[in-house]
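User: Hey, my collaborator sent me this sequence without any context and asked if I could get a structure. I don't really work with proteins. Can you help?
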Amino acid sequence: MAREKRSIEEKSIWPDARQMLAKAERDGVETAWDRLEQQTPHCKFCELGTTCRNCVMGPCRISDKMQRGVCGADADVVVARNFGRFIAGGSAGHSDHGRDLIEVLEAIVEGTTKDYHIRDEAKLIRIAGEIGVETKGRKILKVARDVLDVFYGDFGSRKKEVSFMCRVPAKRREIWKKLGMTPRGVDREIVEMMHRTHMGCDNDAPNTLIHAARTALADGWAGSMIGTELSDVIFGTPAPKKAKVNLAVIKKDQVNILVHGHNPVVSEMIVAAAQDPALLARAKALGAGGINVAGLCCTGNEILARQGIPMAGNHLMTELAVVTGAVEAIVVDYQCIMPSLIPAAACYHTKFITTADKAKFTGAIHFSVHPETALAQAKEIVGIAVDGFSKRDPNRVEIPGEPVEIMTGFSNEAILSALGGSLTPLLDAVKAGKVRGFVAIVGCNNPKLQQDSCNVGLAKALIERDIMVLVTGCVTTAAGKAGLLMPEAISMAGPGLKAVCGSLGIPPVLHMGSCVDNSRIIQLCALIANELGVDISDLPVCASSPEWYSEKAAAIGLYAVACGIYTHLGLPPNILGSKVVTDLALNGLEGLVGASFVVEPDPLKAAELLDQRITGKRKALGLC
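Assistant: No problem. I've predicted the 3D structure and written it out in structure-token form, which is a compact way to encode the shape of the chain:
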């Protein structure tokens, strides 16, 4: 029996989304919500994680009647295998993103590209010093060469630990060492995870999950962290600035290009190409007022945080952005890009353009973008969008609402700068109880839940309790549209948080970047722990992904827990078919790493759980 059809109001909390959902129905455009209804009810074996397709003796399904697969694996082993591979997939996604940034830095060093440059030399020097690269009296490109060699090594198999382990508090490093969780190399841990889950290898569920945590940590403290840090080096470290968000950033009188995906390597070039005088003249000759670039998902977050480029929407807004009828081109790189955008674009004049060889889409226009030719290719792509403006049907254009203003750009460097270069003022506010703790709300949208209801509901409930919220990825758009990313949002905060944020002129919810940039948050936790001389697990900090859906989100959640950060999920992963795995995730990890997962779909109940955790950590530290 199919899932009962929900009303438009039940699908999303946003007026712009609802207006476009109604238009999608009129225009005959299928959306993720429609396909969810077609796909339900879901396979119970898949939901529980008790189906195994790792060899062709099966596929096998484990149940009370069929307690072992053909090879003899029981529910605990099968669920652990599946979850381990899920984590490997998520870790591979973000870490391969990091590798792409190393390759761009290499092109800069070797002089094979003139399109990319080292914009933050001071940060490169600082990173080099942290990872043991000599900097004194050396030219910046020589330093960069050694840095990229060290980071390439972090993907290999010859190290005992990844380079950024130098940032991890000593107490946490010791925990990982005892448990065999110390991440040695990104590719090594991912390959070992795939090996362990091959038939006839690791058949002890807890042992498999320990390595899953190690794999996730390799992502958090190497792959993702390298991606974040080198993006700052190459494109500039984010600093506070104003921008705008929602579908109304799409402009009726301009050529509209939406960049979508996760990697700023392409989107930065599209932004540059859109400012080309010849292309602007071409657009005006066709009757357009200019060329407008806006972001979707995490590549949108990247250029939002660095350049103030507006955000059109998050994961579940991508199809609806096309439905406006005013988008000339969607330019994508990789990750979280729905194949459904191809038929949706075909309903209008919109061109769908792919740029990464590892993420081709049947029916798309493909450009194999590389550092050596990136700007020239970006200009060609923008030219396609400009020419498409003349093919737009004005009668099918409908742009909802007005843009909402937000404040963005809160990198760790920006936060420290706002505090006068020291964490002391922030820690004093925590000790005094004005800021009772911190929660990072990160992740995606899932059409199983009313879009952004949990993301926004949780953020509002937390700031009311004097808990500062940090956001990345798709939660950014949600918080922004709700007015939470402006200093004026302190009117919704508790008295302590209101006073602190008011004195600093910052919002009670801080935007820290894309989903890769969750590495900024674990680094900030490490900085605070080192400042206080405690472990990360001792801090009044938590994490949450209320509307998550992807492998990457699971990897982020697992590395947060492995770092000692209590982590809330709005939906459970597919592990409920194993009592051993479920108990370990919800309870057993607490005794091993000092944190665990908690699953709660109701945002207000989740806020209470997170508040209780923060209260307990404050008491243990002797704080009121």
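In plain terms: The chain has 25 helices and 16 strands. You can pass these tokens on to your collaborator as they are.
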